[in-house]
Design goal:
The protein is α+β, with helices and mostly antiparallel strands. The protein has six helices and five strands, in the order ααβββββαααα. It has a five-stranded antiparallel sheet with strand order 1-2-3-4-5, with helices on one face. The longest helix has 18 residues.
Length: 171
């Protein structure tokens, strides 16, 4: 960082993101439910301008990695990130706007993880797996060594309910 007064906004975002992540990941069950949520920051030069990238990273059941990125341009003291609909780039010098976007994204992670789990169950059912085989797959996801790829007990419960709905409804 250049140490310019404008970079104070960058520090506010970094601290805010760390606080956001810490509030969601204190115990292992939450770490799993939020896909091993973490933040990585990197500095690099683009056309001789210093840029900091802030990435919030997490996994979905089975281990797919997802992330949200925010760039901070040290010269303009502006943040840029994809809008909620992912169709336009938002540019702002307001740290609170960046933190609000990150907060919305992090709050949505459990739902995104559950959606991915449902897609995986649908895939297993389409492959013709039996109930017994499906429960074996759940067991693998519960015991996965890759923390973010594991499922939480809440996800297990919801996944079982979803699975049973496949077998109880008429085809």
């Amino acid at each position: 960082m250049s140490g310019r007064p404008e970079d104070n906004g960058l520090q506010r975002v970094r601290t805010g993101v760390e606080d956001l992540i810490n509030s969601r990941t204190m115990v292992e069950e939450q770490r799993i439910g939020y896909g091993n949520l973490r933040c990585e920051c990197s500095d690099w030069a683009r056309e001789e301008q210093m840029v900091t990238n802030i990435a919030v990273i997490y996994e979905t059941p089975g281990g797919s990695t997802c992330q949200v990125n925010v760039e901070y341009d040290h010269q303009s003291a502006e943040f840029s990130f994809l809008g909620d609909a992912l169709e336009r780039t938002v540019v702002t010098n307001e740290p609170q706007q960046v933190l609000a976007m990150m907060n919305r994204h992090v709050r949505a992670i459990p739902g995104r993880r559950l959606e991915q789990l449902h897609k995986q169950i649908d895939s297993w059912v389409a492959e013709g797996k039996t109930r017994s085989q499906l429960f074996g797959e759940f067991n693998k996801l519960l015991q996965a060594e890759f923390l973010g790829g594991r499922i939480s007990t809440n996800e297990l419960k919801q996944g079982i309910q979803y699975t049973l709905s496949h077998f109880s409804s008429p085809d």
